[in-house]
Amino acid sequence: MGNYYGLRSMCGGLSSDAKELDAQAGFEKVTTAIPLLQERASIIYGVGATDAGSTISYQQLIFDNEIIAGIRRMWEGITIHDPKEEVELIKALTPRGNFMSAAHTRQNYRRHWYPEIISRDTYDTWKEKGETIDQICIRKAQEILTNYQPSPLPAKVEGELEGIVHRYIPDFAYES
After folding, report:
1. How many Cβ atoms are within 10 Å of 150's Cβ, its own excluded?
2. With CB atoms counted within 10 Å of each terminal CB, which end of the chain scores lower, N or C?
3. pTM of the predicted protein model
């Protein structure tokens, strides 16, 4: 992969010929994203795309974000260490101890990846909630569109962007 303009590479990825968020989309997106992440591509496009890139879907954007988070965590790998501290903690707190109050637990439990939309519930709990993955993605996308308030750009960055726009589009009108 080449280095252009300070970027390691820009690659197509998260590609799928699926027409909707389904097993095909998930499979194709994972299998196209892994090699690109393995090669440390700087920019991978195709997030939210379906039907070979002819359609963009809000729910697919949410799902692709989950795919990326899972793959990134996978790439971190597993740290092999001496479990002596954990064994001592289990001995000290079993049978009725509170592991969440232990400093070791608080320092280490965040290393695990917790998906935002993938269900880890039991079948009965999942069934009771009554939402498919597609419905969860649609709901989350609607929540983001309704509630997200972007932070304002720093004045220096905004000024630089305005300068670029004026340089390339001199008659560009700004609305107040």
Report:
1. 5
2. C
3. 0.69
What gap in Å lies between CA 168 and CA 18, rounded to an integer? Answer: 38
Rounded CA separation 159/174 (Å): 13
pLDDT digits (tens, 9 = 90+) for 106-120: 777 766 778 899 998
Residues 6 and 64 in one domain: yes
Is 133 a member of any domain?
no
Q: Angle between the 23-38 and 58-76 helix axes, to the nearest 10 degrees?
A: 40
* Distance of alpha carbon 137 from alpha carbon 161, whole angstroms: 33
Q: What percent of the chain has pLDDT over 90?
A: 43
My answer on whether 12 and 70 are in the same domain is: yes
Helix, coil or strand: residue 111:
helix
Q: CA-CA distance, 147 to 149, in Å (whole number)? A: 6
Which domain, by its residues, includes 56? 1-77
Number of separate domains in the chain? 2
Residue 55's SS3 state is strand
Q: Are residues 10 and 38 in the same domain?
A: yes
pLDDT of 131 over the 90 cut: yes
3-state SS class at 88: helix
